[in-house]
Amino acid sequence: MAEIATIARPYAEAVFSLAKETKSLPAWSSALALVQAVNADPEIRRLATDPAFGKDKLIKLFLDVCGQQLGPDASRFLQVVIQANRLDALPEIIAQFEVLRASENGVKEASVVSAYPLDAAQVAALTARLSLRFGGSIDVTQHVDPEIIGGLIITIGDEVYDASVRGKLQDMANTLNR
């Protein structure tokens, strides 16, 4: 996962920089969402992984499906991604672009993993505490993973706060095994 994030970061930063320069952040978000929707199609995925299909044919297929909705810069970006064999990193590129866009607007994205669903009051309290801690607006996305047993795992940007029971048990096991 870290490897994909590392691969995706320069692409996301380049697209964000271009979108910011041309004052077209919303247009880029729309274009990237369209490219991701096309990329998620099972038939497109099959062709993308078929070495016999060829990069030029794949680029033409994407551009034909997307039509004029992409624009010249987004079309060139797509061509670069396909030519560099980075289509598998596209979802992460888009996710990092959206994080950069939210950050530009003063909003930080927080992913919160809990063993059980949090109710609205708990999410509101957590959001308020995170806003105080990180100094800005926080957009919380909640995920449920019963395997963490209890507690929370909070990810904001590159920072991960593991306050889960599973994490504490793993820490204790590591300490005992030394």
Automatic annotation (TrEMBL):
The UniProt record lists the keyword Membrane: yes
Compartments it resides in: Membrane
Protein name (Swiss-Prot/TrEMBL): Membrane-bound ATP synthase, F1 sector,delta-subunit
NCBIfam families attached to this UniProt entry: ATP_synt_delta, PRK05758.2-2
EC number: 3.6.3.14
Top EC category: hydrolase
CC annotations in GO: membrane
Pfam family, one: OSCP
Record organism: mine drainage metagenome
Annotated keywords: ATP synthesis, Hydrogen ion transport, Hydrolase, Ion transport, Membrane, Transport
GO molecular function terms attached to this record: hydrolase activity; proton-transporting ATP synthase activity, rotational mechanism
SUPFAM superfamilies: N-terminal domain of the delta subunit of the F1F0-ATP synthase
UniProt keyword annotation of Transport present: yes
Endpoints of the signal sequence: none
